[in-house]
Predict the structure.
Amino acid sequence: MPCITELLQQGSRCPEHQPWPRSLVDPGVWTGAATLLEQGQVSLLGLWGEANGVHMALMESQSGEIGVISLACPDGRFPSVGLKHAPALRPERAIRSLFGLEPVGTPDARPWLDHGRWGSRAPLGASPASVTLDSPYAFLPAEGEGLHQVAVGPVHAGIIEPGHFRFTANGETIVRLEERLGYTHKGIEGLMTGADLQRATKLAGRISGDSTVAYAIAFSRSVEAALGIEAPPRAHWLRALMAELERLANHLGDIGAICNDASFALMQTHCAILRERVLRTAGICFGHRLMRDRVLPGGVTADLDHANISALEALLGNIRKRFPALVELYDYTASLLDRTVATGYLKPQLARQYAAGGYVGRGSGRDFDARRAPGYPPYDGLEFKVPVREDGDVNARIWIRIDEVEASLSLIEQILERLPGGPLSTSLPVASGEGMALVEGFRGDILAWVRLDAQGKVLRCHLRDPSWFQWPLLEAAIEGNIVADFPLCNKSFNCSYSGHDL
Amino acid sequence: MRHLLFKNIFRTPLTELPPQRDEEFVAELATRVDRAARRRLGRSLAIRAVDAGSCNGCELEMHALSNAFYDLERYGFRFVASPRHADVLLVTGPVTKNMREALERTWNATPDPKWVVAVGDCAFDGGCFAGSYAVAGGLSKVLPVDLHIRGCPPSPAQLLNGLLSLMETVSLAPGSAE
Ligand code: SF4
């Protein structure tokens, strides 16, 4: 029997949770799940809290089966998962900072997200304290002869989101990188609680601006699951169209920007032109360049007419004409490859352990794409290849993006050819429920979990960005590289600060 | 690569005409910029971007300003890496409490005369994040703001429009060429 089924059977089922099962378990089963994570039999999809309990979403590594286990924390404590499974450390620290629940036995009791500036502690917990943290943040020590530290951020030298990086280097070589994040923490999960669906959808679309479509789809699907409804077919297809345009725009931007961080500006210039063409076409077709607020629970708000379809076809033609020359330029520029090949190597074993999504995981051998499995419409009826490589370096992450650009172009073509007719949305019943969704954004899989009350308002919503399981891997991938290659490695990961900080 | 470079020499440029200036912007600015400053700056402004907790949407459109269609530098604008080299701070986000000090320090490190531009609906009044325990709720709560460019995010054309208005007020207003 699959081990997730077994875990769930040892607890009491929460029948309202859809589409995957959820069980309320005791601390023993919770710890058993941590052991399964440690052994690699299941991977961690998410770990989040609420005022009086914690939840853990798991996926079985072999079968892909998904389930959620929950643990009540009447005394404000839960057994640490991070003790056995390192990827759980930061989510656990965040639970402690936001809800005040103690992970018992945690090897890292430092705060996360809370910088002592909110005027309170555990702002979302059962009993927020009005005292703030005051001790300075303790970076992990790195000691040895000839080591020096470089502190970077939170304000960086370009148009980049804020975060702090503490490098310890021996000469040019990085021996340790430690990230400190949370600078963009806006308290979105707090704002979600009590919000009606319209406002909650707006917030979900503003968690990470570059993935606004993917987040809106993830949130909408979780609400639809909670209410037991399906969006109409045309809405599914238009959502996928927007999602692929978003993926296309981001990958084109990233390919150029990574090369630019190796001082090869020509690629950046040309990729930025293609990216701008995608955004302009999106603006024409959907009325917003980033296609924000176009997806909502029940369906979509924007439709396509014939002129829009020709604009999209012209866009595909243009990219198909220009992009191959850029790929060739990348592949034949030895001085550029010299920077990207073998730089920022991420071990496949780490990508697996952290269940890293997107190009970070797929560039290091993790063959996972939420569009394919668990899957959601309309992708079950579309043909697309999921590129996977084992080489794990900056070059690999560029090639995954290149292959995904091709895949998205073909997906958009298929969608335009077969776009079904019918209504754009369906009306929502006012009811309570719990739902979860896993949606593939350009960066990786986004998990959305929502609980609605009888008035259809959000009681609790958790949105887990793929970056949660990618940021820690950047620390590992950078080890042994030179400080000057950090921007290159960082851009090849392109983790979201805002998506992670919430 | 030579092939690609060569072809591009003969392609017509993508760069577009500047957008129409918005009178409201110019009026808002004119009141704040003194003549001495105008003289000193001439027709060039160095911009330092500061993300004070945005969702990164505003950053995407700020990046777009440098692409071949908008080509910000032809107007004399430059994004610089240090606040010490900057005339203008372009600030996004609702100003999270965790970023407030870094933002204030950046502003203090920027030499006078300096201007502060609030980019996006969040920087205007906190946008949909207003009221959270974790945000100050708008840039004007923290720094004196010279110009708001609204939008979520403002399009590159709107950003350009705002920046050009700022430039005009700074360097081309009557009397600035004394
Ligand atoms: S204004 Fe909109 S796009 Fe800009 S940071 Fe705020 S939410 Fe994001």
Remarks:
- Confidence is low (pLDDT under 50) at residues 172-178 of chain B.
- The pocket of iron/sulfur cluster is lined by residues A 206, 209; B 54-55, 57-58, 92-93, 120-122, 127, 152-153 (CB under 6 Å).
- The CA atoms of residues 64 and 166 of chain B lie 19 Å apart.
